[in-house]
Amino acid sequence: MLRKLFSADRNTAMGCRQTKKADTDIQPEKKNLSNDKDEFTAICVDPRLPLDARQIFKLKQSWKGIKRNMEPTGVEMFLRLFKRKSELKSMFKEFKHLEKEDELRDNEALEHHATLVMTTLDDAITNIDNVEYISCMLSERGGSHVRFNGFHENNFYNIKEPFLDAVKITLEDRSNESIEKIYSIAITFILNTLANGFVEAREAKEAKEAKEKLK
Predict the structure, then answer these.
(1) Phi, psi of 95 (to 5 degrees)
(2) Per-residue confidence (pLDDT) for residue 77, from 0 to 100
(3) Half-sphere exposure (CA, 13 Å, Cβ side) for 7?
(4) pTM score, two decimals?
């Protein structure tokens, strides 16, 4: 079930399905700002985002340290996920047989999957102040999981604490209580959007199937 967590649907772009022109036009805003002060003051916060301008600024600045270490952070995240939910490892045929942490850490299949997940998180956090874009992208990504039998929206939330732990490890002394709170708010928003997208897609699928049965 979690094998394709956050991975892109082949039939979708990095956003909504290409059925409406308006959807495909949604792209991250580009800023050409001279310094950090300008960037902070230029942030216009969408009321749907549970972060204020200062928190967004701190998150983006902090994320640069994660962006330089995407693969090891992602691998650490999955190792911690498997420690918390050992049964989930059985869903990954490429490395479900591995028991030792060192073997898992060096496994190319795990590295690849971890990087895919981190790429989605990177897209969301890098563009966190563009709520229209990330809501569309994450909802689509979450909705794509309806093709996995038995998948439940709660599966997304299993990654929250492992993600926060991995971020803290990567940031080292650059992490503090304020930064940790910001990351917690951000990842909760991201996972909620993924889960909501999944629920909407599942309900649409069920409605379609019920309609077809009545024919």
Answers:
(1) -140, 15
(2) 96
(3) 15
(4) 0.80
